Amino acid sequence: MTPVIARTREELAAARARLRGTVAFVPTMGALHAGHRSLIRRARELGDAVVVSIFVNPLQFGPNEDLDRYPRTFDEDIAMCTAEGVDLVWAPTPEVMYPVTPQVRLSSGRMGTVVEGAARPGHFDGVLTVVMKLFHQVRPDVAVFGAKDAQQLALVRRMVTDLDVPVRIEAVPTVREPDGLALSSRNRYLSEAERATARYLSRALQTGVDRAVDGPLAVLDAARAVLEEAAKADPPLHLDYVVLVDPDTFEEVGRDHVGEAVLAVAGKVGTTHLIDNMPLRFGPRES
Ligand code: AMP
Hints:
three-stranded antiparallel β-sheet
C-alpha cells in the first residue's frame, strides 16, 4: 500500500488523527538511501504506525552551501516508503513549513558551535528548530535518528532533555558501502575519482578506532596519518577537522580519557562536504 502523502498542515492533521497506537517518526531530507531505510525499519519495529518526513530545510543551510542543488528524488523516495510499509509521508514545501520567516528559533548553545557547528555557523540552530516543529506537527511517541550525524543526534537528545519534549529518541548505527564509505545523499555528487578519495574518511576512522587500546593520542595520530595520504590523493581531500570527542557534549576528550568517545571527521572532496564518525571506548590504562 502506498503511504498517505500529506502536503499541508490540514492533510497532515487529518492523516495523523487516523493513526492508531505508538507512532514512530523518521525525519529526513529525502534522496533516501539504505541508511534511511535502516531508520525506517527500526521505526517499523518500534511503532504501530510509521511517519516519514521529507523536507529539505532551508534554515539549516549556510549561504554558500548546497541548498539549491541538494538532490530531490521524491518518486523514488515514495517507492522506498511504500516498500517499507510507511503509513504517512509528511512532505511540506518551504512555504508550508515557514509561511513567514521564523523569528523565534531554538539555540543549540555551545554544543552547536563546536566541531561541525564551527564549520557551519547556525546549522544546528536550524536543525533543532525544524526538528521541534516536526515533533509538534507529527506528535510522535518515538523518533529515529542516525548515528551518522552524531552531533545532531546528541543535540536532539539534549533538546529533548532540556525542553522536556515528550518524544523518545532512538539511534541507529551508520550504514556503509562495502568499502566503508558512509551512505549519504551527498554521495551522488561524487565523480568516480572523488568517490575513491572519499573512502579515506572511513579508512582514517577505522585505522584510528583500531588503536583504541593505545589511548586517545594514538587514535588521533593513526587517523591523521591516513588523512595526510588523503590530502595527497587526486583529487585531494581538504580536511575540515578530525577530533575525538565526548558523545554527549562534543567537547574534545583529553589524552587520559576513559570511557565512550566518538572519532569524527569532515572534509571536502571537490565541492562536496562529507562527514563521518565512529564510536569507540577507552578502557582504563595500565601505568
Ligand atoms: P538526512 O536525510 O541526511 O537529513 O538524514 C536523515 C536521517 O538519516 C538522519 O537521522 C541521519 O543521521 C540518518 N542517516 C543518514 N545517513 C545515514 C547512514 N549512512 N546510516 C544511518 N543513518 C543515516
